[in-house]
Amino acid sequence: MTTSSRKTVVVVGGGIVGTMHALLAIKAGYSVTHIERDSQPQSASVRNFGLIWVSGREAGAELEVALRARELWGEIGSEAKIGFRAQHSLTIAVNEDEFAVMHEAANMTDASARGFELLTREEIIARDPALQGSFVGGLLCTQDAAVEPPLLLGGLREFLSQSPDYQWLPNFEVVDFYHDETGNHVTDIQGNKISAQLMAICPGAAHKGFLSEFFEGAALRKVHLQMGATAPFAHPLKYSIADADSMRYYPAFKDLSLHKLGEQSEIAVRNKMQLLMVQRLDGSFTIGDTHDYVEPFNYEIQEEPYVHLKKVMDSILGTPSPAIVRRWDGVYSQSTNSDIYFRREIAPGAVVVTGGGGRGNTISPAMAEKTILDWAKL
After folding, report:
1. Does this model's pTM top 0.90?
2. Same domain, 249 and 107
3. Radius of gyration (Cα) for the chain, nearest Å?
4. How do residues 199-216 score in pLDDT, each as one tens digit?
């Protein structure tokens, strides 16, 4: 196919969902103009764990999407410099009651597809001697993986820039969209227009502005969270780590005997918390997180969640964890009905895609693949 015969695509949004749309569109043979309102993306895609978290996905369609996305992540990670590693996860049980619930998880009908395996404390320490805390065992997931958020979007764009059919256009803030007989069009405040036959608008948590009418009645909400980063830890961990509180949060475990987990701490309940801990390539940990679902959000950084996270980290590592050196918050968009994420066709060949929630990074390649497959039918 020559460049002149390629169908044209505009992707609005430089976050992970938009960038995956650009990547898979290029791979499918389209010519892509990729628009971002800022000079560099600054929202949820660069404020997360970098986790590809299959273990917590709901049974059925959501798990199938996550498993397909995991396949795509493996392919993409072999091509682009994004710090991809097939780093398994461990959900840690600090007592026998938590371990009993994890035993149930290891016996779910789809446990094999998730790569679940129950490990005793001795088995965990044999595999990862850096974990020496007061725990009794854990749930291994071999399907989970990780990428490096500081490298991710830049690495994907660097890979995309190898194609003459990819154009990156930052500092273009869209204020209007329209469709006519010539195709789909977006304009900025100065009236500059960019047009294409096909368009994917991936706005993250920006639900207002020119998109307001398309979000009317949508089953969407924003979620506010706090995270942090530590100083480097002297020992490399083999796994990403979660605590048992995460099982309360992830829908994979909703039918298990979660009441056996016991009561959460007051801080964890108040902030709707779980521990997720991912070691970065420089040895530091990305840690979190909290959840706030009620707008307007209080954007002040609260210290008590970090006190709780530090305590849980210490108990798992069996040694004082590194100091927390950075703290930040973020907002993501989450579907609130049975849909895995939000997708709406707003004109022929034009679609709005967002609402992946906390699974957005994990399933983003599959979200984009669905769009590309739909375009192929036009």
Report:
1. yes
2. yes
3. 21
4. 999 999 999 999 999 999
